[in-house]
Design goal:
The protein is built from 19 helices and ten strands. By secondary structure, it is an alpha/beta fold. The strands form two sheets. The protein has a six-stranded mixed β-sheet, sandwiched between helices. Strands 2-1-4-5 form a four-stranded antiparallel β-sheet, covered by helices on one side. The longest helix has 52 residues. 36% of the residues are buried. The structure holds adenosine-5'-triphosphate. Adenosine-5'-triphosphate binds next to α10.
Length: 627
């Protein structure tokens, strides 16, 4: 996505998300971190105990003594020391388990609450964006923001906590080692410096590769979504092989990008593992020299037990550092790329909250005025519609007809403010719709699109969509008006029948009638039917028409139609051609005018012999004047 120019937090998107969403849960995060951190203290005790026990109980070389524990608490005889050691081991393990369980629980709650807030807000922002935003983007890409990108934040949250635990483990180990033998501890402390250098090398190289991986996963998702959504078309055109090839190409790109990341990670892993192994051997060798006393006098003496403790600690010292660097860096790089994409959706100005339009629309009689309206889609060279000027009186049925691509749907999209005109004004009852909020405007409008979308669920849920507290009678009444009741009652489970994905279990005509019922349910003041009856037979169309006409007394209706019979009885028919109104009037007036409408009508009633020369010229030039 290329939205970065519209986001106010370009520099630090991850920090922005953390400040906005994690901060409200900061108490939990701190408590969780503290629990995990504290658990590291008892977690380091067993290695210490084993070393001390080895020297005092098994080798009988040293006195049994523990740092920070008064000597009076430690039994003198061997059996007592064994019991004492076992008790301390049990207490240490139990304390570590309880503290880290508590820490994990508290920080886990905070992490998941934070992510929930991010996901809900991002979705909210997404659906609030204007139509042009969705025109420019693929569904798969947007889904991937809500799924993968938010998921990457979770991984980063989890890894950060693990990282914190590892870090504290290292600090506590180091503190214990310094107490036991500060010189060997310093030697061991050099290792993190080398690891930090290696990690820097890794981070610098991996970041750009992660960006590439994020890009390609979005493309893979979009491609998959397209192919599966369009499966009917894919099969009808027997283009399964082409689709597979396309998927193979994008998948290969993803594989290569991801492989580049994995290769780097493997190299990093190997080098840190080598380093850790060398250090382990080095500590053993150095320790052995000291134990054998083969060293200069300034080196403190070291017992065999302390050396064993050091080897334990060394292990818990470097293994976590490697893990810490790898996991945290990996997930940080991922989260950084993801947060850019989330913030691009989240912080982009929303169509529902752009300042100038806080007014509420109040509709009295639903008079509709288009005054010299012009509009061009982004990137279009010429105006898509221009000089559109007409009035729909309250309760009128206005038909809009014209060749394909003339701009009919565009005109009604301007009424919904899916797009705003570049020139001119659209008014409802005298109020410029640009001065009222989109939500309040749309609450007064009903829309049935050319290819209505049914949601996954039952017929009832689809008819009652967006109407709170709809009862059965309302749903049935709307379905009757839309000519849907009869076929719905014939379905296996009537109004409780599942319509399938996108209404796939219903025919095109049935879907349209449910969509009309859905629009009627909202009792709109202005109803827009965008070729809403194109999939139904003549008889059903007449039924729907009669119902819509009956509603007409209360509501103004705009019907876009290719089938001119749909709008034959309209109070006014507007003939659109190439984005401009060419003719307007009733059916009889327009036939009498003998212009474009008259030709379109002749085509529909089969009087092709009487078509005008100009119309025939357009057809012969290949223009799709009629469908
Ligand atoms: N979202 C969009 N982005 C860019 N151009 C668009 C978009 N929607 C439509 N157009 C273009 O605007 C012009 C008018 O389209 P519109 O859908 O309004 O025509 P129409 O008269 O309703 O056509 P049809 O009868 O075929 O549905 C067409 O040239 C179309 O390619």
């Amino acid at each position: 996505m290329t939205d970065s120019e519209t986001t106010p937090v370009d520099g630090d998107p991850l920090g922005h998300l953390i400040r906005r969403y994690a901060r409200p849960h900061s108490r939990r995060f701190v408590l969780g971190g503290a629990g995990m951190g504290l658990s590291q203290i008892p977690g380091r005790v067993p290695a210490l105990l084993v070393g001390v026990a080895l020297d005092a109980i098994f080798l009988e070389r040293e006195r049994y003594s523990l740092p920070l524990v008064p000597q009076s608490l430690i039994p003198e005889e061997q059996a007592g020391q064994v019991v004492f050691t076992i008790t301390l081991l049990a207490v240490a393990f139990a304390a570590e388990a309880v503290l880290s369980w508590l820490g994990g629980r508290i920080s886990g709650t905070a992490t998941y609450r934070t992510l929930h807030d991010v996901r809900v807000d991002t979705f909210d922002a997404l659906v609030g964006h204007e139509m042009g935003y969705f025109d420019d983007r693929q569904t798969g890409d947007l889904m991937s923001v809500l799924n993968n990108d938010v998921g990457n934040l979770r991984k980063f949250g989890d890894a950060s906590f693990r990282g914190l635990r590892f870090l504290l483990q290292v600090v506590v180990s180091f503190a214990f080692m310094a107490l036991l033998h500060w010189q060997l501890a310093i030697l061991l402390a050099l290792m993190p410096l080398v690891l930090a250098g290696l990690s820097y090398w890794y981070a610098v190289r991996v970041e750009p590769r992660y960006d590439a991986v994020r890009e390609t996963i979005g493309t893979v998702n979009s491609r998959l979504e397209d192919s599966i959504d369009g499966i009917t078309t894919v099969k009808a055109f027997t283009s399964e092989d082409d689709e597979r090839d396309a998927i193979r190409d994008v998948s290969a790109r993803y594989r290569d990008d991801k492989w580049a990341v994995i290769r780097l990670r493997l190299a990093y892993n190997l080098s840190t593992w080598l380093l850790a192994s060398l250090v382990f051997i080095g500590v053993f060798a150095a320790g052995a020299l000291v134990v054998m006393g083969d060293v200069p006098a300034f080196v403190e003496p070291l017992s065999a037990g302390t050396l064993v403790t050091f080897l334990f600690y060394g292990k818990s010292f470097y293994a976590p550092i490697r893990q810490l660097m790898l996991e945290v860096l990996d997930s940080y790089e991922n989260a950084l790329a993801s947060s850019k994409r989330i913030v691009a959706v989240l912080e982009r100005t929303n169509e529902l909250d752009t300042g100038d339009e806080d007014g509420e629309l109040s509709v009295r009689e639903a008079r509709l005025d288009y005054e010299d309206v012009a509009f061009a889609y982004d990137g279009a060279e010429e105006a898509t519609v221009e000089d559109v000027d007409f009035t729909a009186d309250p309760g009128d049925l206005v038909g809009i007809v014209g060749p394909t691509g003339a701009g009919k749907s565009t005109i009604v999209k301007l009424l919904f403010r899916f797009y705003d005109p570049s020139d001119g004004t659209v008014r409802i009852d005298g109020t410029d719709i640009a001065t009222v909020s989109r939500r309040s405007l749309r609450r007064h409008l009903g829309y049935v699109s050319q290819d209505p979308f049914l949601f996954y669920g039952t017929v009832r849920e689809n008819v009652a969509y967006a109407v709170a507290d709809a009862d059965h009678e309302d749903v049935v009444a709307a379905a009757k008006q839309a000519g849907a009741h009869e076929f719905v009652t014939d379905l296996a489970e009537g109004y409780d029948t599942h319509v399938g994905e996108r209404g796939g279990r219903l025919s095109g005509g049935q879907r349209q009638r449910i969509a009309i019922a859905r629009a009627i349910m909202r009792e709109p003041d202005v109803l827009v039917l965008d070729e809403a009856t194109s999939h139904v037979d003549n008889e059903t169309e007449r039924q729907i028409q009669a119902s819509v006409d009956a509603l007409g007394a209360e509501q103004t209706t705009i019907a876009i139609a290719h089938r001119l019979s749909t709008v034959r009885d309209a109070d006014q028919i507007i003939v659109l051609d190439d984005g401009r109104i060419r003719e307007a009037g009733t059916h009889d007036e327009l036939v009498a005018e003998d212009g474009l409408y008259a030709d379109l009508w002749r085509v529909q009633v089969g009087e092709t012999d009487a078509l005008s020369d100009s119309f025939l010229d357009r057809v012969s030039e290949g223009e799709e004047v009629v469908r």
